[in-house]
Amino acid sequence: MDYLLPDIEAKITILKGDGIRNGRSIPAYSGYRPAHLVKDDYLTTGIHQYYGAVVVQPGETVMGTITFITPEFYPRTLWIGKLIRIQEGTRIVGHAEVTQIFNELLIKSD
Q: I need a surface site. Which of 3, 21, 22, 35 has the fewest CB within 10 A?
């Protein structure tokens, strides 16, 4: 099995909510695979790995990495400081603020 390298490092916040409309009512674990709105019209799956934490409770913010699926379909869409919405279907469950970009294909050029 190939090991996937992370695409970005981010400050990841899992929103506290009722788990029905927005936010989560249960924790997120390293390996969590929600959808990420990387462009205004493009959701993609990403795999979370949290630094120093296996679990993130709703309402908490942690540092970690995200490995996106098929980044070649949304090149040059990220920059340091960009907020990426995290979703489960249509429900918004958090956000990730990009702090470092490891995959050069994703770096937005001005």
A: 3
